[in-house]
């Protein structure tokens, strides 16, 4: 049976508000106040900590690349301390994963979030049991869009990397799946909405209730 691999932020869980809160804590410490908005800037949040810091500092005079690197560890510490205040799974996500498991599919997470933070988030949300394998940004020497983290997540789940499907929300996930030679499904309810269709995935998921049937069609 195939392995269904999920990206985490923006795919399984809406983490934007907590990520942006961590970035804003860095800006506040420099006297700038909140430079990012948790709703309007949510697409930036899913591009990573450095992207958030870069975007925020671009809105004020002075800070640049050096400040981004200086504040990045602080951002991670702020985020670690308040990782699941506002973060919630997208509607139907856990139920869809449970149904896939009942049907015999293996499940895993492959994320560009640091592994320790990803594990902590899943523990805080109380559903780490749904994903026996998790590969993060620092689990291996490479990260997505290199295909090896995806393949490793499948291997850790006990599956065959050639029999897998990736569920994601950004071009990074599309590029990862293409490099690995497996199908990719983009969620249409993530940070970029219906614009994911422009990335030409194998399918777009409009609601998690449709995922088991979609997986069965793409991985017969």
Q: Which properties best describe this structure?
A:
220 residues, alpha/beta, phosphoglycolate phosphatase, 2 domains, single chain, two-stranded antiparallel sheet, hydrolase, 13% strand
State the CATH class of the largest domain. Alpha Beta
Unreliable stretches covering 5 or more consecutive residues: none
* Molecular shape: elongated
Gyration radius, to the nearest Å?
17 Å
Distance between the termini: 9 Å
CATH topology description of the largest domain: Rossmann fold
Strand order of the largest sheet: 5-4-1-6-7-8
Class from helix and strand fractions: alpha/beta
Sheet of most strands: 6 strands, parallel
Number of separate helices: 9
The proportion of residues forming helix, as a percent range, comes to 40-55%
CATH architecture of the largest domain: 3-Layer(aba) Sandwich
Number of domains: 2
State the order of secondary-structure elements, H for helix, E for strand: EEHHHHEHEHEHEHEEH
In total, the number of strands is 8
Mean pLDDT: 96
Strand content: 5-15%
- Per CATH, the superfamily of the largest domain is HAD superfamily/HAD-like
């Amino acid at each position: 049976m195939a392995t269904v691999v999920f990206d985490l932020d923006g795919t399984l869980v809406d983490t934007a508000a907590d990520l942006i809160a961590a970035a804003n804590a860095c800006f506040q410490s420099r006297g700038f106040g909140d430079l990012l908005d948790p709703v309007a800037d949510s697409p930036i949040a899913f591009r990573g900590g450095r992207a958030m810091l870069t975007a925020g500092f671009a809105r004020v005079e002075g800070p640049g690349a050096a400040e981004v690197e200086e504040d990045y560890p602080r951002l991670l510490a702020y985020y670690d301390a308040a990782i699941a205040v506002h973060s919630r799974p997208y509607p139907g996500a856990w139920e869809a994963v449970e149904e896939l498991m009942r049907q015999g599919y293996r499940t895993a997470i492959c994320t560009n979030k640091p592994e320790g933070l990803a594990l902590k988030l899943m523990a805080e949300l109380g559903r780490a049991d749904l994903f026996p394998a998790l590969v993060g940004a620092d689990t291996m020497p490479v990260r997505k869009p290199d295909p090896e983290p995806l393949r490793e997540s499948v291997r850790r789940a006990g599956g065959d990397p050639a029999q897998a499907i990736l569920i994601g929300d950004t071009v990074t996930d599309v590029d990862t799946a293409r490099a690995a030679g497996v199908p990719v499904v983009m969620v249409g309810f993530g940070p970029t909405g219906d614009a994911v269709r422009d990335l030409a995935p194998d399918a777009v998921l409009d609601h998690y209730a449709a995922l088991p049937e979609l997986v069965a069609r793409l991985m017969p």
